[in-house]
Amino acid sequence: MTSDELILVTGATGFLGTRLVRELLERYPQARLALLVRERAGQSGQQRVDAMVPLEQRGRVDVYGGDVALENCGLEAASLHRLSAETTRVIHSAATVRFDHTLQEARAINVEGTRRVLDFAAGAPRLRSMTYVGTAYVAGERNDLVREDELAIGQGYRNTYEQTKAEAEALVRSRLESMPGVILRPSIIVGDSQTGATSSFKMMYWPLKIYARRLWRTVPGFPDAVLDIVPVDYVATAVARLAFDEAALGECVHLCAGPRASATIQQIARRAAEYFNAPEARYVDPKLFFAAVRPLLFMTLWGRKRRVLRDGRAYRDYFTMRMQFDTTNADQLLGPLDVTPPPVLDYLDRLFQYCVASDWGRKPVPAQ
Questions:
Q1: Mean pLDDT of the 276-301 span
Q2: Which residues contact 190 (CB under 8 A, 6 or more apart)?
Q3: Is the pTM of this model over 0.85?
Q4: Which of 3, 18, 41, 291 is the most buried (most CB within 10 A)?
């Protein structure tokens, strides 16, 4: 690696982005980072970054207030000119991961935001690579083996997140003919494989919490549904490595557990039942549950259990998935570097331990 590297990172303050920034700083000690960060009410972009970057590393990190949803990513003209002239690599991980956005809202961030970042990268004369962090769930409603070179094969989508991430990836693919870049598709990102640490208690954590607290044990899905999850430390390391790997240019890479390391809903539920001393989960055909059982329960239940019924609707499709993600490119590119995802069942208890220690994100846990 040369000493003139300037890596522009979007989405740097997110769950993955925070870990990725740390990984880049540690792995490439000669590189500088430019972070595009939105301001929050009462907290500047610089304050947000200072809270996540160690004091001794802050001299290598420049913070730019901006937003990919705005024209020129919200950058002032002078900042835009400077970044364009100096940037050597772009890692674009900013996105909305909400399932309840309208299509227009999700497109404004996931598609148009990606277009603006691609336009910036195309105008950077020293660009060496453009790394796009998408999602394996561009596969939508497929239930077969999803290959890394496949995108749109006529599948439908469960929500606007999946649809707009597929549209954004199609846009990136169209630009890779004229730009050095790589597409990375992580599956569901969970806590650290060694410590269980996470700052995001979404996706699998919400149903896990209500199950551990014995609020609900009925799963509107199939026991053999596949849950492909990957720990944040694996994904951050893989992104940092592939952003500098010339062999990865032009490729799409699944950062997924894949058929060898994923687990079924039943396997995870049984492990959770053992850990939390909870009753065995029971499975109900999802069509029957949402057509007949749920409406009846919604009329008869109140309080916390009714809120579970309401909030759980967003997760229903993820209890029925039987698709698997092929990891051929990941194996070829990352295997020789000994960067491979651990089997889900090998670190599941560490995730559970952190959930309990943090009271599901309500209190801090001392760093291990």
A1: 72
A2: 198, 203, 204, 205, 229, 230, 231, 232, 351
A3: yes
A4: 18
Structure tokens at 328: 């051929």
In the structure encoding, which two tokens stand for residue 114, read together?
Answer: 């990606």
Per-residue pLDDT tens digits for 179-207: 999 999 999 999 999 999 999 988 788 88
Which residues lie across from 40 on neighbouring strands?
A: 43
Burial environment of residue 159 by CB neighbours within 10 A (0 to 12, 13 to 18, 19 or more): middle
Question: Could you give the CA distance from residue 1 to residue 294 in angstroms, rounded to a whole number?
Answer: 57
Q: What are 20's two structure tokens?
A: 């990725």
Query: DSSP label at 245?
Result: -
Q: Do 88 and 127 contact (CB within 8 A), yes or no?
A: yes
If you average pLDDT over residues 298-325, what whole number do you get? 69
Structure tokens at 144: 């077969």
Between the alpha carbon of residue 258 and those of residues 188, 230, 266, 318, 326, the distances in Å are 12, 10, 17, 16, 6
